[in-house]
Structures are given as C-alpha cells and as structure tokens.
Design brief:
The protein is an all-alpha fold. The chain has two domains: 206 residues, no CATH class; 99 residues. α1 runs antiparallel to α7, α7 runs parallel beside α9 and α11 packs parallel to α13. The N and C termini lie far apart (48 Å).
C-alpha cells in the first residue's frame, strides 16, 4: 500500500475534503451555511487534527482486530476465526468524542468526519440520516440528493483507503454493519480494492466472515475484476459455478465482461456457461461479453458462441 505521507497528513486532507464537500453540497440539501456553521466545521477539523497527531498508525496485522464492526461482538456459532474475533472489543479509531443522536442538522460529511475522529456513534447517526432519506413520502429527487451526499463522502474515503489509509477503510468496513449504509459502504470498499488495497479485497473475497452481504460483495468485486485482478475474476467465476448463487449470476456475468474482452480464458469459459442460464438477462450479458471478446480475436469466445448457435 504505497504512500510516503504520514497517517496524520492523509487523514487531515481527507477530513478537509469532507468539510469542503459539505459546502459544495449545500444546495442539494437546501441549507444556507452561516458563519457560525463555518466556525463549527473548522473547529471539527482542528479537533480531528489534534487527535490525529497523537495517534499511532495501525499495522496491517492488527487491522481486523482494530476495526472489526460491533456486530462481531454478538454473533454466535460462527467459524473459529470469527468467534475469536468476536471476543475482542473493537478499538476506537481515535479517542471518542461525546456522542449525540442525529438531530436533523448534522450533514453526512460532518458525520463521516466525526467517525474518522473517533466518534463511535457517528455511523449510527449517518444510518439514521439514510433511513430518513428513504422513508415513505420522500420524493425520488430528495432521496437521491441525500444519498448522493453519503456516496460522495464514501468516495473520498475509498480514494484514501486505496492509498493505504487503514482508518478510512476501517470506517467503511464498520459502515457495512449499518442497515442503510451497507450497500454504499461495500461499493466504496470495492473501489478501494480496485485501487489496490489488499485488505479491502480480502474483505470482499470473504464476505461471510467479514459481515458483508454476499450480493453486495459480488457487486463490488465487478469493479475490481475490471482492473484485471485475478482473485476478483476467479471469485466471480466461482459464483457462476454455484447453482445456489444463481440470483447473482447477472452481476457475475457483467463483472466478467471486461476480463473476457481482454482474453482472460477463465472469464470467457464462465461466460460460455452463462449462455445456458434460464435467465434472459444473464444470457444477454454473457453474449455481449463473448461477442466483444470474439471481435478482439479470441477464438475461445467465438467457439463458445458457435456452440450455442448449434444447440
């Protein structure tokens, strides 16, 4: 995970970006920022920087212990590795500040910045925000505007995680345990993995062990597979070999298209099998990938299409 920047510098830039993003997104939430709000945000940044300067960077070997979501504290009957992890108490990223319930005025960017600063309840408030955004009676535009703020904040986190910031990845992982944040956070982890974060990839390759929905993990792995990552490609191939995961075949087929177009034989063979799926959408996605691979001169793809025509 290449980065010569100190952990403090990385997190400082991330939190500043989150605060700046809040001002740019102000019109989307129909709020007018006042001078007092600016001073409050700057105070948040100063406090975060002060805490970051006193923090000892976590080591890769301790990541899973340090950042394990709280859900691992209560799970029973899991595998030995998960059970062992469940006995540990998740360590706060930084010294926790006094928490408060979501009051309707704190923005997603402020909540994410608070989570980075050690506020263990910040993600709960962010989850409440997302819940309210998707509540009955909300218009599609209102819901999109609210969720896009979370996506934007998580996008910044994923970029930093892709640069090796384990604090950012840890917050995203914890967010996967929240009902209304899980999908957005898993997508962000996928982007971090696509950027080369090996721990992010590990989280997605072992979703059951890491408290991530397998459907969300498969969707996130598609971006990683598009970078040519062989582990991600093989994970999607294995999904296609499991009849019990047929509901995920469309995601897998879509995620393997780019690899097939680039001549990856495992991906081409998997798409060939998908041509026999009873689902029209799965077959269409497989055919599209194979046709593009065939146009690129890969005879294995052309043969798979020819065999389907003969049937």
């Amino acid at each position: 995970m290449p980065s010569q920047r100190s952990r403090g510098e990385v997190n400082w830039k991330l939190i500043v970006s989150l605060v700046l993003l809040f001002f740019l997104a102000g019109t989307a939430v129909h709020q007018q920022r006042r001078i007092s709000g600016l001073e409050r945000d700057l105070s948040l940044v100063r406090l975060s920087i002060q805490n970051l300067e006193n923090k000892t960077p976590s080591r890769r070997s301790s990541f899973f212990e340090q950042f394990a979501p709280a859900q691992f504290q209560s799970k029973q009957g899991q595998t030995q590795s998960v059970t062992a992890r469940s006995a540990r108490v998740a360590t706060p990223i930084l010294s926790a500040r006094k928490s408060q319930n979501y009051n309707g005025t704190e923005t997603p960017q402020q909540m994410i910045a608070a989570a980075m600063s050690g506020d263990n309840a910040a993600l709960d408030r962010l989850d409440d925000f997302a819940s309210e955004a998707t509540a009955e009676g909300k218009s599609a535009d209102e819901t999109d505007a609210a969720l896009n703020q979370i996506r934007a904040g998580f996008a910044l986190m994923s970029e930093e995680a892709g640069n090796g910031n384990s604090d950012a990845l840890g917050v995203l992982w914890r967010a996967t345990s929240k009902s209304y944040l899980a999908g957005l956070a898993t997508d962000a982890i996928g982007h971090a993995a696509a950027l080369g974060n090996e721990i992010a990839l590990e989280l997605l390759l072992n979703p059951d062990q890491n408290g991530i929905l397998i459907s969300s993990a498969v969707g996130a792995l598609t971006e990683v597979a598009e970078t040519g990552n062989d582990l991600a490609i093989q994970a999607l191939v294995s999904v296609g070999q499991d009849d019990s995961k047929s509901a995920l075949w469309y995601l897998a087929a879509s995620g393997l298209q780019h690899a097939a177009e680039s001549g990856n034989e495992s991906a081409i063979e998997a798409l060939g099998r998908f041509l026999n799926s009873p689902d029209n959408n799965v077959r269409a996605a497989a055919r599209q990938g194979l046709e593009r691979a065939s146009l690129n001169g890969y005879t294995l793809a052309a043969d798979a299409l020819a065999q389907t025509r003969e049937q």
